[in-house]
Amino acid sequence: MSRCRYSIRCFKTASHRAPKPVFLFMDGFGEELDVNCYFWLVQGNGRNILVDTGMGGSHQLDFGSYGEAFLALHQGSQSGFPVGEGEDTIAQLQTCGLRPADIDTVILTHLHYDHVANIPLFAEADIYVNRRGWEFALRREYPIFDSFPHPLLRYMEREMGGRLRLLDDEAEIMPGLSVFRTGGHTRCSQAVLIDTHQGRAAISGDVAFLYENFEREHPIGFGMSAEESVAAIRRLKREASILLTGHDAAVLERYPDGRIGGEPA
Q1: End-to-end distance of the chain based on CA atoms, in angstroms?
Q2: Would you identify the family this protein belongs to, as annotated (predicted)?
Q3: Does residue 100 belong to any structural domain of this protein?
Q4: How many H-runs (helices) and E-runs (strands) does the chain carry?
């Protein structure tokens, strides 16, 4: 590991219920699971970094010609992914004494709405996306896999200029913080490896929805490739001692205050 060390803060930004086979490939028919949506604040070496953007808030109409489309995305999401009081991105950052303008880097694990909803808030940040998956999402070749929020992607493409950083499949963002493309869930899915004060952490994104995906090396159900899902799960288990899943409510059972990898007391 590098000499750079970071701490991580996990924020719950919405809740969701879905059939179990969404999370575990061909397993649990007739069952449903309650899960959470998360975003992550990574701090260290003078940096304020987000992994994914959180959801919610009342700012959607603040973005000119994009506003009505952003509001429609937000309203459509609320039925399946309700954001509770105080769970929106701005409110969560305020608990840490931060504003969106204080965030200098945003790493997107992939481009689904529950992970990119509030990207327009971060006008001062560099935004990191997997190049191969970004190009796939814009082409819209396969309708069955086109579950991306295209008004937000158009905003990113047209308005972000040089702040939109397209990454190779293996990339170091800065010392002690890197990504690799996982695929599995979407073509743009990437995991984030972070050197913390307590070991290397991995934010899996949705290539592993649950800890059960890791424990059983069982692929996710909602995805493009079960094989890629298992390969990524195995690599993450090899390379990280702290595993942080995409949606498991157990993340906040393991880390009740959401604090992960900080300096020992």
Answers
A1: 21
A2: Belongs to the metallo-beta-lactamase superfamily.
A3: yes
A4: 9, 12
Q: Within a domain: residue 2?
A: no
Domains of the chain: total: 1
Range of 227's domain?
A: 7-260
Average pLDDT for 193-210: 97
Tokens matching residue 88: 């929106």
User: What pairing do the DSSP bridges indicate for beta strands 177-181 and 190-196?
Assistant: antiparallel
Sheet hosting strand 259-260, strand order edge to edge? 164-167, 126-130, 105-107, 47-51, 32-44, 7-19, 259-260
Residues linked to residue 39 through DSSP beta bridges, in sequence order? 11
- pLDDT of 107: 98
pLDDT of 112 above 60: yes
Please check whether residue 240 lies inside any domain of the structure: yes
For residue 75, give both structure tokens. 């309203």
- Amino acid type, 229: S
* Phi and psi, residue 91, nearest 5°: -65, -40
Find the CATH number of the domain harbouring 60: 3.60.15.10
Q: Is residue 214 part of a domain?
A: yes
Give the C-alpha separation, 115 to 191, whole Å. 13
